[in-house]
Amino acid sequence: MDTSDNPQTLRSPRLRPGDRVRIVAPACPPGREHVARGVEQLTSWGLRAEVGEHVFDQWGYMAGRDEDRVSDLNSAFRDPGVRAVFAAMGGKGTYRIVDELDTDALRRDPKPVVGFSDITHLHLALWARCRLACLHGPYPNASDAWCGPESADAVRRALMTTDPVVIHRDAGQASAAVTVEGTATGVLVGGNLDAIRTEAGAGLPNLKGAILFLEHQRGTGLGEVDRALTQLIRTGALDGLRGVALGQFIGFEQDADDPTLGGWGIADVLRDRLTRLGVPVLGGLPAGHGSHPPTIPLGTQATINTAEGTLTVQPAVV
């Protein structure tokens, strides 16, 4: 699906006090105490928080069997009283169920899905198949040490107001050293780099006309980022991008001191792969797997401005 030829985004009504929302677990199983904390947080906003039937199931490293995890999602999508869906946790497993999502239900009755990391698979699938605007935001079970009051309030504002979201570059982020000057406007799509790479050839939406948001947490090292970006380039998935917004790349701090890497760090890999796209690149956004994350709408119009160091995104709700 081409973001430039099909600009219409499906946006949900903003939440109001008294609305029902549901926590589901599309990936790994959360702890009961964490979900209880999330329910408490959502209730403090005047919402009526529910927990999906299979949230505390376990099947290997996942929160129950595939059919049960997707059943919880589709039950929330089909229930007209549920006005937003929160992922309880990321991890592994969302990629196994995205083909079974009831996107027809969301076309009839749109509601935002909130999460990040492995939940990027949901965001990409919902954008590709029904153009639903979602939210790249923290799980509703996070401790104050990881997601403090400011981050929690950012989720609330993104769901309960129609204010645009503005994220400012943080010079302390590893990706801040990567900049290709300019401004660009397009629909913001993306999230976790590994999830985006995994969806290439298996449902990744057409990114022509889009601003691509990328964030990542270290696994095996610089090579994994190089391989992921190279695969996306070689498949043509990045053809027609209007710009790139780089969030956090966590865990790569010591690579520049490794003599086997020739002095390269994560910024060098990002710069080497992305500057050749010939589009503006804004690095240093404090969004990803780090503490106190912002909440960013996905699937709505966004503008990056490298001179001002800002990503401005239109709301996911109306």
Average residue-wise pLDDT: 95
Cα-atom radius of gyration: 18 Å
Percentage of residues in helical conformation? 25-40%
Principal-axes shape call: globular
Q: Helix count?
A: 8
Strand order of the largest sheet: 6-14-13-8-9-10-11-7
Strand segment count: 14
H and E order? EHEHEHEHEHEEEHEHEHEEEE
Largest sheet: 8 strands, mixed
The low-pLDDT segments are 1-6
Q: Which structural category do the helix and sheet elements fall into?
A: alpha/beta
Strand content: 15-25%
- How many angstroms does the end-to-end distance come to? 23 Å
Q: Would you write up a description of this structure?
A:
The chain is an alpha/beta fold and 318 residues long. It is 26% helix and 21% strand. The strands form two sheets. It has an eight-stranded mixed sheet. Strands 2-1-3-4-5-12 form a six-stranded mixed sheet, with helices on both faces. Strand 9 (210-217), helix 7 (222-234) and strand 10 (243-250) form a beta-alpha-beta unit.
Please describe the topology of this protein.
Blueprint (H helix, E strand, L loop, with lengths): L19 E5 L7 H13 L3 E4 L14 H13 L3 E6 L15 H6 L4 E3 L4 H11 L3 E3 L12 H12 L4 E4 L10 E2 L2 E10 H7 L10 E8 L4 H13 L8 E8 L15 H9 L6 E2 L13 E3 L2 E5 L4 E4 L5
Helix pairs in contact: 6-7, 7-8
